[in-house]
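ok so dumb question maybe but i'm new to this and my supervisor (M.) told me to 'just get the structure for 2-keto-3-deoxygluconate kinase' and walked off. so i did the thing. is this what she meant?? sequence i used:
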Amino acid sequence: MTDIVTFGETMLRLSPPRGDRLERAREFDVQAGGAESNVAVAASNLGCETTWLSKLPDSSLGRRVTSELESYGIDAAVAWDERPESRVGTYYLEYGGSPRGTNVVYDRADAAITTATAEELPTDAIADAEVFYTSGITPALSETAAETTKTLLHHAQANGTETAFDLNYRTKLWSPAEAAAGYRELFPYVDVLVAPISDVRTCLDLDGDAVEVANHLASTYDFDTVVVTRGDSGSLALHDGEVAEQGVFEADTFDAIGTGDAFVGGFLAQRVAGADLKDCLAYGAATASLKRTIGGDVALVTREEVERVVTDEGDAISR
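this is what came out, is it supposed to look like this??
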């Protein structure tokens, strides 16, 4: 039985050397990156059997994505799109420090994933899994992707598979109002909600502290578990009236991309293992902190490294 199945888009990430601008770059580092595959890789590195579902063009670039992801130990179960016009989404990451900041340029319109239907995907894997995960990025890609996301979440619940969903709001994909409507379409099929506090305030127009937000979301939408992430202020989880909180762990940041996905991967890996809320949050926070020290989208960490961070409570910051 697979522990965790995820569904979503994975793109090719192209990055010029640090310090170079996109307009003068002569070379790019190429890696695969996507929220749901990032979660699958993080959980796999912590001992879970994970499968990533998606749709890709039947081309060298599509195979480039699956070969890289499979090298990390996950199962890439994709529908192959044979249309000549099918494409892989890409994004360009230009690193920059203060005051310029890092810039991301997306080129993902009309990617194969935007046409993915539930009928094309191996849904038996979802029915046999412990957890099915996707994020708010996926339904924002197209009407078809939104319908497929809803169908897969419903299929998971109907087969007794726990469902997990991260709001993961992206301003370049849809407006706050569009995101709110899209989220509410999916909420009836979600058991575990991961809600960045900034996304909650931007899209769901909720005020209050993390405890108030978690309680409001749980009571309004009948989630089993709500996890509220608060950036440098750590995270909080609510389940059956129990609240657990976790600070962040200090890290020298080399590459922050994928930090939130690493947190979710660590959290879900411990949840599948039957750990309590506090332990799940701790593993999420530790996996996220380690990810910040690693280049690329994915958290190439070991369980031993995560456990060492968790054990060293002196590095925990409660804010």
